[in-house]
Each structure stands twice: as C-alpha cells, then as structure tokens.
Design brief:
Shape: globular
Strand content: under 5%
Distance between the termini: 34 Å
Structural class: mainly alpha
Oligomer: single chain
Number of strands: 0
Helix content: over 70%
Number of helices: 18
Length: 401
C-alpha cells in the first residue's frame, strides 16, 4: 500500500497542510452549530418559539452525537475519510432543511447538524491520533480544535451581518454553500495513506473490530471530559439570551461579543497546543477547570454590569476551552489500542451530558436566571475534577504526561 507512514511520530511533520484543510472545513461545521445559541433572540420569532422551546430542541438534538458509537470501529480501520465526507454532506442537508422555517424543521435540521458535526469531529481527532505520537498530540489536537474559536471569531460576525442584510435565512444559505465547498476540498485533497499503527488492522486475517476493552480508568477520563463539555454547553446555550435579558445587548452587539468569545477561545486552544504537552495534560485540564469555576463566580456577581458580565463569561470560556481541548488528548490515549473507538464512545458519553446540560440549563435559566445555570455548570466542573483526579491515581503514566 503506497504512501504509508513509518509511524505516528514520524508522520507529525507531514500532516500540516492536511490539518489546515481539516480545520477549515471544521470551522464551517462549527460555525453552523455555534451561531444558533448566540442568536436565539433572532430565531425565536423566526420559528415561532420561546427560549425554553429552542434550548429543548438544542438539547434533544445533541443526542444525534450518540451516532459516533457506530463510527468507532470504522475509524480504527482507517475509514476517517469516508466519515469526514459523509458528515460534510449531512452539514449541507441540515442547512437546506432549516430553510423550511418551522419549529419542526428546525428540530430536524439541528439533529442532522449535530450528526454531521459530531462525526466529523471524531473522525478528525482519530485521523490525528493515528498519525501523531502522544508526546505531540495535544499540540495537534489543540490546533484542530481552534476551529471552535474561529467559528466565533470569524463566523459569528459574518452571521450577524447576514442576519441584518437578509434575515434569519441568510446564515443557513451561506453556510450550506460553504459546507458544499468544504466537501469538495476534503474529497479532492485528503491523503489516502494509512499509518503503520493501523495497517495491521487492515489485514484480512485480523477481526473487523478492535477487541481492546474500555477500562475503568478510561471511563473516568471520558466522564471527566464529558462533564466538562456539559458545563460549557450549559452556559453557552443561554449566553445570547442572558446578554439580551440582563444587559439589553442587541443582535449586532451579540455579534461583537461573539468575536471576543472567539478570540478568548482561540488563545485558549493555542495555549493548550503550546503548553499542555510540556506542562502535563492532566495538570493543564485541571487548571482550566479551576479557571472555569472562577468565571462562573464572576458571572453570578455581575448583576446589571455589562463589563463584569462579559469578563465573567470570557474567563469561563477561557477555562472551559483550555480544559476540554486538553482533555481530548487524555481520552485519545486512555485505550491506545482502540483510539477511534474510545474517542467515539467518549463523544457519545459527552453527547448525553451535553444534551442534559442544554435542556437543564434552559429550564434553570427560565426559573432562576443565570444563577441556576451557573450552579449546574459548577457542579459539572467539580464532577470533572473528581473523575480526573481519580483517574490519575489509577494511571500514573497519563497523569505525568
């Protein structure tokens, strides 16, 4: 088989151009996903729905992420390309469905959207994990995950302009077209070579599914990562409504705040990429969770002070993004013989957590305001710290790296 690498560590220098394309396509996907919570005040009249109804749709739609469990064995057999392309096709379909303009169509569209983003994300993470050694993996995964920040830094302001010019349908049309272009770029340029780490799994004599079991330690790491994600999404889904309700921030203002969100997340992802491998991935994740908790405390104390509120949510996002992105490296190495399966199962666990977080956060926000949402996020962060600390005691090797 031509084009095979000599191993994960040796492959690291060669993935730069491909990583850039993967990040570009993922930025389109993440923009399609991330603009929705920020602009709920715009979407409520468009779909004749309340904030609680839309956050319930967002939470229920997160369950589409459970589909990654079915992708795990394919990813461990170097089928990342297929999963990436199918996911981008679903991304285009999601935008077209949303244009129908009913609450039901929005629910279906969001389900398909999460299906696309979840599988694309896990496929990209697996592609990197199969080709990059653990000692450098946080750097590469951190760069891959900058797409979340770019979705806000670049995508959200564009969405705000599109809404002001063309109404709520504008972003769906443009993002649908951009996802079609991304599909072509990935299909025409993604290398087909397979690293040695998975070549033996492609031998006909080898069973079609990896037999490595997910260990109790791996479950602790996955739950720690999942509850971190739950804390993040729980706050993010109500962020636009909170900025509007508490401070009267309009659509254009939310777009400007989203740029600040994106800048902070970009700094956080790049910091993870630059420091986590050297400082230690577990220590870095825990430090991010502590910063997340500090951000929540500032948000709750903001009252009607916009500057304090924005500082609080930016601090929260800085800690969340740093903790979550770094935790992905821990997950990827928790079962080294089945990285794709482990990342896929971890995403499914995270899906359940994020869905519960989105629905619960919307309800708590409706009843108790931002204090209710912040309390839920704090409980999730503390649970994540507990799981990760316990995993450290069980696996000193991962704790030290």
């Amino acid at each position: 088989m031509s084009g095979r690498s000599t191993g994960p560590a040796d492959a690291t220098p060669a993935i730069g151009p491909t990583l850039t394309r993967l990040v570009g396509a993922k930025t389109v996907a993440n923009t399609a996903l991330r603009w929705l919570p920020l602009f709920l005040p715009t979407l409520e009249p468009a779909f004749s729905a309340t904030t609680t109804q839309l956050t319930t749709v967002l939470g229920a739609g997160e369950l589409a992420g459970l589909s990654t469990v079915a992708s795990g064995s394919r990813l461990d057999r170097a089928r990342e390309r297929l999963v990436l392309l199918v996911s981008l096709g679903l991304l285009t379909a999601s935008a077209l469905i949303a244009l129908i303009g009913t609450l039901t169509s929005f629910a279906v569209s969001f389900f398909v959207l999460v299906l696309a983003v979840s599988n694309y994300t896990v496929a990209g993470q697996t592609w990197i994990s199969h080709r990059v050694g653990y000692g450098q993996r946080a750097r590469m995964l951190g760069l891959y995950e900058t797409s979340w920040a770019l979705a806000l830094l670049v995508g959200a302001p564009i969405v705000a302009v599109l809404i002001n010019l063309f109404g709520w349908r504008g972003p769906f049309v443009v993002l649908g077209g951009a996802s079609a272009v991304a599909t072509f770029v990935i299909a025409s340029s993604l290398p087909r070579w397979v690293p040695d780490v998975v070549i033996e799994e492609l031998d006909p004599a080898v069973p079609t599914v990896r037999r490595a079991a997910i260990t109790p330690t791996a479950w602790l790491v996955m739950v720690g990562s999942a509850t971190t994600a739950m804390a993040g999404l729980g706050v993010f889904v109500v962020s636009g409504s909170w900025l509007d309700d508490a401070f009267g921030v309009p659509t254009g203002g939310i777009g400007a705040v989203a740029v600040a969100f994106g800048a902070v997340e970009l700094v956080s992802s790049l910091t993870s990429a630059g420091l986590a491998d050297r400082v230690g991935k577990l220590r870095s994740t825990l430090a991010g969770l502590v910063l997340l908790l500090a951000g929540l405390a500032i948000m709750v104390s903001a009252d009607a002070r916009l500057v304090v509120g924005v500082v609080g949510i930016l601090t929260f996002l800085l800690g969340f993004e740093f903790a979550f992105v770094t935790s992905l490296s821990l997950v990827s190495e928790s079962v080294p013989d089945a990285r794709g399966t482990t990342l896929a199962v971890s995403n499914a666990v995270g899906t359940i957590a994020r869905a519960a977080g989105a629905v619960s956060s919307g309800w708590l926000y409706g009843v108790h305001g931002i204090a209710g949402t912040a309390t839920l996020a704090a409980i999730c962060a503390l649970a994540a710290i507990g799981c990760l600390v316990l995993s450290r005691r069980r696996t000193p090797r991962l704790a030290a790296s």
